[in-house]
């Protein structure tokens, strides 16, 4: 699949394979699924997109969810959700830590 930056009209290039993506749902947003995907970037303007999602590697109803979510948050480059971005602290996701992450509501 070829992807083109709409701003620069330049082909996107692979940036990082195996990006962890946490999908959220509801209001307030709660993590519900974890995916692995790939990040691509424009070599001119450096805009990045995430694509190539497979099946979820973890779901919130599974018995290992707490462990899987903590591992994903410690390694994650991307937090994915629905609608407009809002800022939540990691504590809002029931994970302890001072790091602030971007989550979509």
Explain what this protein looks like in three dimensions.
- The chain is mostly beta strands and 105 residues long.
- The chain has a domain at 16-36 and 57-104.
- Helices cover 10% and strands 42% of the residues.
- It has 1 helix and 7 strands, in the order ββββαβββ.
- β2 and β3 form a beta hairpin.
- The radius of gyration is 15 Å and the shape is elongated.
Question: What's this, in brief?
Answer:
With 105 residues, the protein is mainly beta. It is 10% helix and 42% strand.
Task: Reconstruct the topology from this structure.
Elements: E1 13-25, E2 30-41, E3 48-51, E4 58-59, H1 65-75, E5 78-80, E6 85-89, E7 100-104
Parallel strand pairs: 1-5
Antiparallel strand pairs: 1-2, 2-3, 2-4, 6-7
Largest sheet properties: 5 strands, mixed
Number of helices: 1
Helix content: 10-25%
What is the end-to-end distance?
29 Å
Strand content: 35-45%
Structural Rg:
15 Å
Quantity of strands, as a count: 7
Along the chain, the helix and strand elements come as EEEEHEEE
Mean pLDDT across the residues is 78
Poorly predicted segments: 93-105
Q: What structural category do the secondary elements indicate?
A: mainly beta
What gross morphology would you assign?
elongated
């Amino acid at each position: 699949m070829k992807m083109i930056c709409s701003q620069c009209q330049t082909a996107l290039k692979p940036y990082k394979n195996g990006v962890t993506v946490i999908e959220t749902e509801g209001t307030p947003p709660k993590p519900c699924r974890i995916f692995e995907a790939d990040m691509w970037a424009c070599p001119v303007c450096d805009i990045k997109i995430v694509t190539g999602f497979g099946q979820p590697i973890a779901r919130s109803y599974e018995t290992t969810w707490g462990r899987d979510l903590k591992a994903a948050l410690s390694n994650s480059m991307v937090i994915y959700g629905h609608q407009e971005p809002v800022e939540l602290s990691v504590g809002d996701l029931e994970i302890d830590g001072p790091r602030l992450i971007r989550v979509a509501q």
